[in-house]
Amino acid sequence: MQQRATAGTEGLRRTNTGAVLRALRRLGPSTRAELAKHTGLAKATVGVIVADLEAAGAVAEEGSRPGVRGRPGRPVALRGERFVALGLELNVDYVSAVVLDLAGRVVSSSSRSGGTSDDLRELARTALAEHVGVGSTLVGATLAVPGLVRGDNRTVAWAPNLHVAWPEVADALGSLVPGQRIEVSNDANCAAYAESHHGASLGAAHALYLTGTVGIGAGIVQDGEVMRGAAGFAGEVGHMPVGDSTALCGCGRRGCWEASIGLHAMLAAVGMPELDTPLRTAEAVAARAATDARVRAGLERIGRDVGLGIAMLSSVLDPQVVVLGGYFTPLGDLVLEPARRTLDERLASAAQVRPDLRTSTLGIQAAALGAAEQSFGPVFTGQRDLTA
Amino acid sequence: MQQRATAGTEGLRRTNTGAVLRALRRLGPSTRAELAKHTGLAKATVGVIVADLEAAGAVAEEGSRPGVRGRPGRPVALRGERFVALGLELNVDYVSAVVLDLAGRVVSSSSRSGGTSDDLRELARTALAEHVGVGSTLVGATLAVPGLVRGDNRTVAWAPNLHVAWPEVADALGSLVPGQRIEVSNDANCAAYAESHHGASLGAAHALYLTGTVGIGAGIVQDGEVMRGAAGFAGEVGHMPVGDSTALCGCGRRGCWEASIGLHAMLAAVGMPELDTPLRTAEAVAARAATDARVRAGLERIGRDVGLGIAMLSSVLDPQVVVLGGYFTPLGDLVLEPARRTLDERLASAAQVRPDLRTSTLGIQAAALGAAEQSFGPVFTGQRDLTA
DNA sequence: GACATTAGTTCGAGACTCGTACTTAATGGT
DNA sequence: ACCATTAAGTACGAGTCTCGAACTAATGTC
User: Fold this and answer.
1) What is the C-alpha to C-alpha distance for residues B194 and B199, in angstroms, rounded to an integer?
2) How far apart are CA B231 and CA B259, in angstroms?
3) The predicted structure's pLDDT at residue B168
4) C-alpha A1 chain-centroid distance
5) Low-confidence ranges of chain A (pLDDT < 50)
6) Are B222 and A218 inside 8 Å of each other by CB?
């Protein structure tokens, strides 16, 4: 009654099919010979697997690529039209939906302000109606939320910023995708996954994603997989004791990281008011920084505390890339430069390399995109069979 | 040219053989029927695999267990005599060697003071001579060192406390195990692995091990596997900025965690002198604490800073169990109790459960034992075939 | 136009797992 | 003492799968 990952020979086929699909995602359109090289499978095996995938509509042949000596290969490419996944995000002040296809293309991407279950339901319904036709099958649907999601990928243990009745949300959304199970996932984890597959940390097996709004959250990617922790709560870094130890946090304690670098702390440091969304607020701050030295100094202070926390996290996790999302994105180097300097001062040793600090390239869609990508996870790992 | 984990059908067999071996390690002696239940394999398959393993000498039948209705099963058990692994530790003031057998029994375990390559070589040689006979084969050998080990499991990037010429060590040891490749691993990682397989965090898939001597190091186990990080440097937590931000650290910076809770900080807090080894020093402190309230107060202060760092690490990693080794072990609840209280105050949310804080049960042998266990890793994951 | 070169398929061999049917070995009741 | 019951382990045939070698196909080069 334990792991059945690869018991019989058909499980083996699934595993190998997953390897072929992964290679196609990574390499783009490839000939069977190239796939055989990259997966280590025999040419004959790849031929059979590709034929199966073609029959299922998951891949299609493209025009041949001549020019080299010998018989030209006939590249096959992932076909997007047939298989798609839905990623949703329910956040405090906005909702978004992304439809992602098997080839990794974003078919549809939409957001709107408002943070109710109805807003999300509406958005999801139109996305599905407009972009998931009769010819395409929905592989899965995942909902990203800013809160603690249990290890079962279903229930939410704690989401203080979201005023939502949980079973109700699941039911309301469940009716949109009949016969499907909507998975729930943490928003920072989803965003981290998205940045690692499509964004700023593309190709880095070990990456850390930091999102900053009113609260601070992290998503940890280790060896290409999101790290969950024992109860699924890994990455809840907002209340680490970092930065100004006297700063009062919304949670009632003092010294939490987000009390030093959360949106409100940043606004206090630069002496500016909050606008309607964190992103727009940060854009205003960035604009003002160009002319106002006091704002730059405030961001410098924030950046140092950001760097302090990243130093901490880097000591523990040793990431290759750290991606900063949320309100940090518009501020860019205004915050990242002081963070880099602090990080250099605090590196554990000369041998350790400073991780690369970058801003998010996916912006507000990161979490929903990552959620969709997570729904494709079982396909690429060979746990789910598209050809059945 | 990529992952060949499970390509052909013989790879499948290896995977399944690994599953059977794992089940035997976990459950102890089991009948074929029980193994079939627990691995999910068919009875017939288990029969074949067990027969192969028996032919290779990896398992043997035990006396039957009567008493129940029906034909009694004939339990098979892992046989220790045939396959063993060597674990070594080279530390600042001592070296140790452990010979572990396939069944998980510690065949031999020895330590001595001294931290030179020659000391270790001597210890390893006698351990091998006395406990690895002609009938037994050495599955692998791993060396644990207090330093930053690169991802290649061979080279050491930084080991400031060890005054050793690296290629020389590898050569000297390599001649002891002809035809073998000695892997190198971080000592805290090894100890964490050992505690998860044999010690205080047995059975916990997500555990954190903290070792305290002059420096502080951590080993992180996530999903049963040691977390390495991008360059293999994950878990270097000694220089996280935690605790007294004015405390001067040996690395030249201020505010490092180990400047607050390292051995020297602890001794300063209780006003006692250092003895010849950290362990003996801590035992003396523990003894004095029974009668001296000032010592208890000093340990209380240390415990709070320990708790602060663990709060940090728990927010990031969400471990189920935190094991404290090194000088913390003799002090036990004198440090753990204040740490637990601090941890309770700093938990990220009501939903998050406090990880269980325990002291190490393996003591000074933890790292060497974990190193040996790591050598068995490929056997139990099915990457290495014992029956060949 | 012959030849070298590379892509992809066909085919038979070999390895493996699985379910079913069967044998074996014990217990418990009559 | 005998037999029904129960469960463990094995034999066997069917079904999958991967693999290497041989073969066919398509293109560039000389």
Assistant:
1) 6
2) 25
3) 73
4) 32
5) 1-4
6) no
B158 and A CB contact within 8 Å: yes
A61-70 LR contacts (CB < 8 Å, sep 24+):
A62/A29, A65/A31
Of B219, B31, B21, B40, the closest CA to residue B104 belongs to B21
Instruction: Inform me whether the pLDDT recorded for B262 exceeds 90.
Output: yes
Contact between A318 and B229 under an 8 Å Cβ cutoff? The reply is: yes
pLDDT, position A150: 85
Q: In this structure, what are the phi and psi dihedrals at residue A313, rounded to the nearest 5 degrees?
A: -65, -35
The model's pTM is 0.93
Beta strands B94-101 and B83-90 are antiparallel
pLDDT in tens, B44-94: 999 999 999 999 999 999 887 777 788 888 999 999 989 999 999 999 889
Q: State residue A350's pLDDT score.
A: 63
Residue type at position B229: G
CA of B238, closest CA in chain A: separation in Å? Answer: 8
What is the pLDDT of chain B when averaged over all its residues? 91
Per-residue pLDDT, A3:
41
Identify protein residues whose C-beta is within 7 angstroms of any atom in strand C: A 7-9, 31-34, 43-44, 47, 50-51, 68-75; B 9-10, 12-13, 16, 40-45, 48-49, 64, 66-72
A104, HSE (Cβ side, Cα atoms, 13 Å): 20
Q: Say if residue B145's pLDDT is above 70.
A: yes
Alpha-carbon dihedral B2, B4, B7, B12, rounded to 10 degrees: -160
Tokens of B147: 């330093």
